[in-house]
Specification:
By secondary structure, this protein is mostly beta strands. It has a domain of 109 residues. The protein is 11% helix and 45% strand. The longest helix has 17 residues. Belongs to the LOR family.
Length: 157
Amino acid sequence: MKLLFKQRLFSWFDSYDIYDEAGNTVYTVQGRLSWGHRLEIYDARGEHLGTVKEEVLTFLPRFALYQGGRRIGEIKKEFTFFKPVFTLDCRGWRVQGDFFEWNYQVADGAGTTVMSAHKELLNWTDTYVISVGRPEDALLSLMIVLAIDAAKCSQGN
């Protein structure tokens, strides 16, 4: 399953549309006024599915992940000098990114790739292609990409 993650060009807060391979809107993401990033995820019918919420007053970006109203985990950026590293505390998954922070892979505890995301260059807005192995992992995969993109924004990248 592939998802195209596109930031809207003209929006006051972070807003994204997420499309499937056929070009149908699968999710919409709306940024909300708050201290730090707060991204609300909705399905195509407008039903709330989850939230990615930045935890403020931390040295490096940290985001809580909520599905419905229940906290399911967190992702945080670690201090490194060269290659960006994110620690994911959810389902035993691990995140690995490249030097430029454009490509990411998420693997489960057995080392099997669950999701990969790569940033498409030469677009007016942030655009990622997310490849998800199982459709039931799509929402969490989207949350991870949203958090990483917001972390880069928080640090001015």
